[in-house]
Amino acid sequence: LAAASLTVRPRRTYRQAALLPETLAKRIVVVATLAGVLTGPLYLSPYATAIAIAIGIGVIGAVATNLIIGVADQPTIGNAAFMAIGAFVAAEAVLYWHWPMFFAVVLGGAVAGFVGLLIGIPALRVRGLYLVVATLALYYVTIYAFTQYQSRRVGSAGFLMPRLSIGGLTSDHSWYFVVMGTALLCVFVMRNLVRLRYGRAWFALARDEIAASVLGVNVRQQKILVFGVTSFMIGIQGALFGYYIGVVSVDPFTFDLAVSYVAMIVIGGQGRTAGSVLGAVFVVGLPYAVTQLSGYLPSSTAQSLQRDLFNLQGVIYGAAIVLFLVLEPRGLIYIWDRIKTSVGLWPLSRKLERPIDG
Amino acid sequence: MHLEQLPNAVVSAFPLAGVYAVVGLGWVVLFRATRILNFATGQFVLFGAYLYYYFSEQVGLPFPLSLVCSVGAMALMGALLHILFMRRMVGQEGFAPVILTMGLAIVISNAVTLFFGPGTQTISLPLAKTSVRFAGNIAITSGGFLIMAVAAVLAISAILMIRFSRWGIQMRAAAEDALQASQSGINVGAVFVGAWASASAVLGLMGVMYGFSTVVTPDMTSVGVRGLSPVIVGGMASIVGVVPGAIAVALIENISVVYFGESVRDAAVMVVILAMLAIRPTGLFGGRLIGRV
Fold this sequence. Notes:
Order of helices and strands of chain B: HHHHEEHHHHHHHH
Strand content of chain A: under 5%
Number of helices of chain A: 17
Distance between the termini of chain A: 10 Å
Shape of chain B: globular
Structural class of chain A: mainly alpha
Oligomer: heterodimer
Number of helices of chain B: 12
Order of helices and strands of chain A: HHHHHHHHEHHHHEHHHHH
């Protein structure tokens, strides 16, 4: 962290401190990213659009997971349960109450957020690894409840969701804008939350609860709040995810799905907004990249590989989690920071690298 | 309601309790020694069973040799995992080491399916697959008896080892305060390697027994997460508590399956965990571990 802070320029006025992209370079990056994302349908093939939507959905989940685990340090693994809540509530609202999509998705998020608030209350009692176990147990109970509900209401196939079309766009392009818009909004919210009272309170919670309470943080209130906010985001994400794949059933909401969001923030960088994005790109993109790379192998090897591709992707993905934790626990974003610092300090960078890292 | 199944469910809970006791030991030994919850526990069980399948069915070694080879390979794997990966995590409180074990779990699950395929395999020990009938249709298979016997031996020896042996005392000291322990001449690194090796050997052994009494499939891993509940019931800091915890959880699980059907199996165990965490987070036999603000 010391190395990263070397490149931060001093802020002289309140306006400077409030401005989000502090430097010209950052402003250019932000504008370029926005432009690149918004013009996506112009240059992305249908296949690439589908990957981009998957990454966008991943970003929403990774941002929420990063807020609760990376920022507030409340280790949870019940992610997929909140996604399921969002998806099922949205499906119910769209199919049976004939709500428009926007309100159905927001309702899904709201119900998940409310459940998250309730979960926040026992989280006051248990912490650390006990919280991991509690959210794990809650995940299984929630999924059991939804399995029962699903089999009574629609049968094992699940809820069939209608196709989405907004303003004459094709279904894929409508989805692209909906998901990307939500993902950008989530990134914006997280980037700001961590600078506000709330984010700072959550960082304080993560460091030391007693110290935080002495500094005037209402520990109970903030803990419940962080659960509510992140569950709301995850519920929205689940609703979009279920709606997008077209069938809402319990099948995709596996324990491995929950782990994959934790993997994203570990690989991307905990507590860092850009880290969530990088992690989501890495974890969601990895299977596609492996598939793509296996295409370059000689055809005989590729054929025999085809059958095992899914498990091979799994091995590589699991190994990535392990290796990142062992070799660079601060994630991809920290690798980027290091590159940036060493370029910024160029003639001196080699001498500075070691002592500053400690 | 199928009340006539109730006696059978109660009796067959005991072999299941044996499985849970050993899986719970796997969780609790690592937690006591290194403060890590090993989410690859179920995968260790799976891997042990598949190693035995490999040595006995594919290589064709006789029973004692393949048992020794598979359990030995598991111990070696545990030691290597600590030396290569987990050692870097020592002293990191909290979630990071747990996530690492989740990564390991993903690797092991996928690698096993990659090498052995997703299908079901059978392994046979030199033991007749008979069952002992009590009244009516209440029965325990020979595999079930084997599990109970192995679980009893492992549980008793683990409790005695950790309470009285030199290694056990060193392990408890290292868990209490690694720095202090190393200052008084305990090789903390070796203790941790020992904990990982013994936990994975024990889990691998149970994998072989469990695979013998049922079948060997990639789905065996579910017993890992379920095996966490006896630990929560007994208390994460308590090794003795695992055994009554396992019996209680297995009974609750089997009885709720009678009433609500097979699909409730996972959820029933998890409700037990939630109830226990709500009422008494430290478990029936655990000391105080949790503070609050």
